[in-house]
Design brief:
This protein is of the alpha+beta class. It is built from six helices and 18 strands. Strand 17 and strand 18 form a beta hairpin.
């Protein structure tokens, strides 16, 4: 039997980077340090597990009122394009987001996109809709999960969308992050927010990551591996060539689609801070959207520096949160990927300061 949907607003099981005193950047966070700090943004997860071989799911980032009739300005950036980000071309061409952004497993992306279309067509105001551009990102969770079984179905998608809420966002091994691995450790969903000043007005920018990429973890500039922490995993981690990362950025800043594309670019750049390898087989993407309809009013480009820095810091923190919240997982073929132990991480960071 499939596991019931994970409560969409439940706190993650693990500690977060700020709980450990690991603070990235100087910009203040929102009250929850999550993408849901951006007004009008909700998150829902459905976790799909069938032990021992299925560890997958779907995560929905849902802006209020988004629809083909009321699209939101948006931009997308591809760091490395070995991926299946459904809806990319129209998002690039028009700079308009018409649906929530959903994340899932690679071979389930197309079923999820179909389910998203069906859900949208039943929404009020979409009775006459004849064209719709669903936006669905994916990561390959095949190291720990039976990806070929395509376990994510329409009911899972609807549960994530209908259950999306504000408040704290579950992190780690939930939703689309249930089976993902990053930087040599079990990873998953992570989130963070910042409240930079933009032209004398404080705005909010929030990020959510589905971390599944290769490389060597760096925390506050220090390299951290499973072996350096005294862990000796029985199974090798996926090679760097098979990883990916999906990043969703939301902001209430008055930006147009071109500027949001610049924001998305910085989100992908931020992965380098965490040690990302950007390998040949990695699909590294960011989708950034604004919660204000594009009325033509926008911030000056020269004022965007603090917002860019906030995105860089937020993505770095969200990746770390995805690792700290995750739990050691044994999956397909008995493979086991260790979680990042908070106590050992703190010891390693303290030793590096001596």
């Amino acid at each position: 039997m499939d596991q019931p949907p994970h409560p969409p607003s439940a706190p993650g099981a693990g500690r977060r980077s700020r709980d450990l005193g690991i603070v990235i950047g100087d910009t203040p966070t929102g009250p929850l340090d999550a993408i849901t700090d951006v007004p009008g943004v909700r998150v829902g997860h459905t976790t799909v597990r069938r032990h021992p071989d299925v560890h997958s799911g779907v995560t929905a980032v849902v802006p209020d009122m988004v629809s083909p009739r009321t699209p939101l300005p948006a931009g997308v950036f591809t760091g490395n394009g070995y991926g299946k980000l459904v809806g990319t071309t129209q998002l690039t061409e028009l700079g308009a987001l018409e649906t929530p952004v959903l994340l899932t497993s690679t071979l389930s992306a197309f079923r999820v996109a179909d389910a998203l279309v069906g859900w949208m067509l039943r929404r009020p105001g979409c009775e006459d809709t004849q064209s719709l551009n669903p936006v669905v990102g994916e990561c390959n969770d095949g190291f720990l999960s039976d990806i070929r079984s395509r376990p994510v179905r329409e009911e899972h998608v609807r549960a994530a969308l209908d259950g999306a809420s504000g408040g704290p966002v579950a992190e780690g091994c939930v939703g689309a992050g249930t089976g993902t691995v990053a930087l040599g450790f079990k990873a998953g969903i992570g989130t963070a927010s910042r409240t930079p000043e933009l032209a004398d007005r404080r705005c909010t920018v929030g990020v959510l990551v589905q971390a599944n990429f290769g490389g060597t973890l760096r925390v506050l500039g220090r390299t951290v591996t499973a072996r350096s922490l005294g862990l000796a995993p029985d199974d090798p981690a996926p090679v760097a060539e098979t990883g990916s990362c999906m990043i969703v950025v939301a902001t209430d800043a008055p930006l147009d689609a071109r500027q949001l594309t610049r924001v998305a670019r910085r989100a992908v750049f931020a992965l380098a801070r965490t040690g990302a390898a950007y390998g040949h087989g990695s699909g590294d993407y960011a989708v950034a959207f604004g919660t204000r309809p594009d009325t033509g009013a926008r911030a000056d480009d020269a004022a965007l520096g603090p917002l860019f820095e906030a995105v860089l810091d937020g993505v770095e923190e969200a990746v770390l949160n995805s690792l700290l919240a995750a739990t050691t997982t044994t999956g397909l073929h008995g493979r086991t990927v260790p979680a990042l132990p908070a106590d050992l991480l703190l010891d390693a960071l303290a030793a590096g300061r001596r």
